[in-house]
Amino acid sequence: MLSARGGRPHDADAPPSSSSSSSSPRPRCMVDAAAAGDSSDRVMEWETGLPSPCEMTPVSHQLVPPALAAAFGIGALEAGVLLPSFARMVWTPELHHRFVEAVAHLGEKGAVPKAIVRLMNVDGLTRENVASHLQKYRLYLKRTRAATPPPPPAMYLPCFAAKPPPDGANCGESPPSRAPDAKTTTQIG
DNA sequence: GTTTAAATAT
DNA sequence: GATATTTAAA
After folding, report:
1. Which domain range does residue A130 map to?
2. I need a labelling partner for A169 at 20 to 30 A (CA). Which of A42, A78, A79, A184 fits?
């Protein structure tokens, strides 16, 4: 017997078993039309290369593990079936992967909760769910980037900072070396 | 007591 | 929509 709230995936006894999904012929995809004809302003950009929501692996049923669903008498999770309000969702690796892909396709500018939710096309996934996960994900990215400081573009650096020219070619800018008149040769007669 | 993950409030 | 705070679990 598993507890509702304590149902952390720590002891996840039911990882995404493909055995039960063998006979799950994805009902259909109604988001296709929504994504295509709704807002073609920015949507078209990421559509290229994207497998299209229909082809993506159906993760809708992963929101509630089979064992948990059985515990609460929830039968086959068809579209429209949400999680029990008292169970908090679990970001499975599959869900997170889809989340990351959505963010990647949307880009830094378009990766906002509303767009991500729509692109992920996961039944029952709310904007708040994604917003919370997005916050955590951004913190993760910040930490990751901090660990590996991106080298600044060498083209923007002064020539003396890049590397010593092999043939002594001058790039136009003068290095901060002392002025040539350092010795102030007073060549007086 | 600390850290992590998701929800919730601002 | 972004960020801060809170809650719950490990």
Report:
1. 93-146
2. A184
Strand B reaches within 7 A of the A62 CB: no
Check whether residue A112 has its CB closer than 7 Å to nucleic acid strand C. yes
pTM comes to 0.49
CB A47, CB A10: distance < 8 Å: no
Domain containing residue A125: CATH number: 1.10.10.60
Total domain count for chain A?
1
Positions 133-162 in A, CB within 7 angstroms of strand C: 134-135, 138
Helices (H), A16-154: 31-37, 43-47, 66-71, 93-110, 113-120, 127-147
pLDDT, tens digit, 9 for 90 and up, residues A33-89: 344 444 444 444 444 445 555 455 555 444 555 555 555 544 433 333 444 555 788
